[in-house]
Amino acid sequence: MAEVAERHNGVADGGLKIHVARKVFPAVAGRDAHPVLQDIAIDIEPRSFVVITGPSGCGKSTLLNIVAGLDGDFEGEILLGGRDTKLGYIFQAPRLLPWRTVYENIALALPDGDPRHAQIDDMLRQVGLEGFGSQYPERLSLGMQRRAALARGFITEPDVLLMDEPFVSLDDPTAQGLRELLIGLWNRRPTTVIFITHDRTEAVMLGTRILRMGGANATIVQDETVRLSTAERTDREAVRAEQGRIFHET
Amino acid sequence: MQRPNPVLRASIDQPWYTRVAWGVGSLLGFLLFWEVVALLLQHRHLPTPTTVFAAMMRELASGQLLYHIGMTLFRVAFAFVFAMAIGSAIGIAMGRNGRIDQFFDSWLILFLNLPALVVIILCYVWFGRTEVAAIIAVAVNKLPNVAVTVREGARALSRDLAEMAHMYRFGRWKTLRHVILPQLAPFFLAAARTGLSLVWKIVLVVELLGRSNGVGFQLGTYFQMFDVTMILAYALAFIMVVQLIEFGIIQPIAARVNRWRR
User: Fold this and answer.
1) CATH node for A47-69+82-247
2) Which among A36, A72, A140, B6 has the fewest CB atoms less than 10 Å away?
């Protein structure tokens, strides 16, 4: 059992040092034990937006769960910079409590009596859910549920925000709208983000750094800095050109 | 061409008052049928509904009816709460822990199949014909049912939501109140519904065998006199009370628990 350690020295506040020497899925129900991740070493700067991309099933979500501390069964070490580093996690499914309203779902992420309870209405407006606070999640569209999940992730002001394909299975305009929303939220309050996607355009549009995972026993095969200004990120042509450069697309 | 299912249509498409009208109408039809048959047969073991209703009113006026129904309800309430609390605890423990589940599974099957009468007799023999023995006997009969139902709920708890609660630092109390209990609520409700009907039927047997008051005791007394009119009067009065509990307490709770569903 390895564990997620928090140390003050060695890693800057809000930064991370990820080292996964080996991660093996144990044998279950007729399937033999098989390795998933190997020799992954990543240093992440505070307030950088790191996108991890790669083919589906290569172990991206597994890596994120290890960083989140949800999966402790691996060889290696995760070092979080700073004392009591707060992690936020926006999952692939919105994972809202269906029996609590949108407002309550966001409020529950904050400790009782936290002054940020007063900012929930403002947060709802920022994600375009003004007037939907009293609705139950299942009465909303998937896109709106994802907005609520974004609001919940941001209201806690995490030092590190983990995002696992949060815009998957949405129609293109909705996903694009949410990406722009995310860029806006992140610019207003830059935080360290690790974002997983298999969508290359999304990777280039959002990330300041792109890590590509690959191989049957996956490791990092490419590490690239994205050369785009904030304005260029919403410019389709600029994104396309940068995408071509990074992924060698013609 | 596929024809719409007539059963589904009847329950979904009609407004509530149509459904109520059908319910009341069919009930009146039954009473009318009973009245006619009783009048035709003219047998003292089959009183007409009017006679039964008159007897019910007499018992109500004398205070006897309310007293005995009150005693029965008191036993139902205690046995019900006791069975729900212990049964839920056992069910949750079994649903969450594989080893506990494996060990106690055969116990559960044993108790599920133990006849109610055996439990009642044993309780009276071991603990004497006391109020406590009566309530324990009823609760033990219901308990395995609750455990089995709640166990299914505990097995189905969402891991996704548990991870979410962990990441957002809900803590124990918030997780229990906002994540776990709402997931178990439908199972508690199912256990409560089947529980109520089972418990009150067993309470009557317990009263018949070893108590000196309650609806079951009255039924036993009038059985010895072959007084079918009084037996029906008590039985029908109690059915009405149970229906009141269903509509007045259980259905509003169910509606509240399910208000978030689409």
Assistant:
1) 3.40.50.300
2) B6
